Backbone:
């Protein structure tokens, strides 16, 4: 049995200040399609400034949104290929 290996290229970028972290996640699929999503984190004024924690939270939120967009894309492609409405794909 032959196996096919496929790779996805994922990029993550962050913008930060003392109170906020914004993340943008992008995945490039083998067909050239790019899917992008954003995430955000805010530091409470009494919390210690830990940029890495803000990146982890904002990054996780961006990746979660990216996952939801990919599930929606897959669901729509299933419907188009089958010509019917399929059951929703759940996480």
Residues:
């Amino acid at each position: 049995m032959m196996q096919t290996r496929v790779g996805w290229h994922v990029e993550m970028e962050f913008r930060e200040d003392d109170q906020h972290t914004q993340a943008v996640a992008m995945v490039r699929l083998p067909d050239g399609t790019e899917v992008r999503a954003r995430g955000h984190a805010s530091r409470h004024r009494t919390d210690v400034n830990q940029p890495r924690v803000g990146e982890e939270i904002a990054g996780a939120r961006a990746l979660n949104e990216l996952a939801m967009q990919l599930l929606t894309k897959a669901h729509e492609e299933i419907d188009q290929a089958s010509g019917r409405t399929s059951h929703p794909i759940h996480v």
